[in-house]
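ok, trying the design again with the full structure, not the truncated one.
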């Protein structure tokens, strides 16, 4: 791996935005394409952050800090992507469902997916089922990620499931859910495809669901 790519990955793990931006600029100056910077540098760092989280060595605060570094670096890379390469792993729609306005987990999931090469369509918070259905229709996304923190919003999860079935789209998308008030059981009860107990697993979950090697 190019030394600058290694530096970029390390800077993500160390939550060092300045060092990461410097390394990314070195990569670009060396002729390394933006998506290679993401795939071979930034995503490597985010993957390590996820592994450290799984081991209990990093916690939610560390995931947030790594996400903040990613935000800063992606601003540098903005506009430098080859359009033919962007989103080559597929499109994933993210939304915090109707009745819930919490977005921390969703935002981290978005960062994880973007760093892994997915084209992320973030619909925001308190999102109606109809908006999610319309987005699937318009974008042709193969994946949908729904988050929920409040137990009072469980009914909205079912509304999304019902709306996708009614629109004839359910068999065209893979749906994963996550958040404090979700569970493996809830995913099965609603007929969804996966449950993620941490944002760090988002990329691997959607790679599996969308059959990406």
């Amino acid at each position: 791996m190019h030394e600058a790519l290694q530096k970029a990955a390390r800077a993500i793990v160390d939550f060092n935005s300045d060092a990461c931006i410097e390394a990314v600029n070195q990569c670009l100056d060396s002729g390394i394409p933006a998506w290679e910077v993401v795939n071979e540098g930034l995503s490597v760092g985010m993957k390590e952050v996820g592994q450290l989280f799984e081991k209990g060595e990093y916690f939610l605060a560390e995931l947030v800090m790594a996400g903040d570094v990613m935000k800063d670096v992606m601003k540098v890379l903005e506009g430098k992507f080859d359009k033919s390469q962007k989103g080559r792993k597929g499109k994933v729609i993210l939304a915090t469902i109707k009745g819930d306005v919490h977005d921390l987990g969703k935002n981290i999931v978005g960062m994880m997916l973007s760093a892994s090469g997915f084209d992320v369509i973030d619909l925001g918070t308190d999102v109606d089922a109809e908006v999610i259905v319309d987005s699937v229709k318009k974008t042709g996304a193969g994946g949908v990620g729904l988050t929920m923190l409040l137990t009072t919003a469980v009914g909205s999860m079912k509304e999304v499931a019902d709306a996708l079935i009614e629109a004839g789209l359910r068999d065209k998308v893979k749906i994963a859910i996550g958040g404090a008030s979700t569970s493996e059981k809830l995913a099965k009860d609603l007929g969804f495809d996966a449950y993620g107990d941490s944002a760090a697993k988002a990329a691997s979950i959607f790679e599996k669901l969308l059959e990406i090697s």
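Keeping the full-length input from now on. Residues 91-209 form a domain with the Rossmann fold fold (CATH 3.40.50.280).
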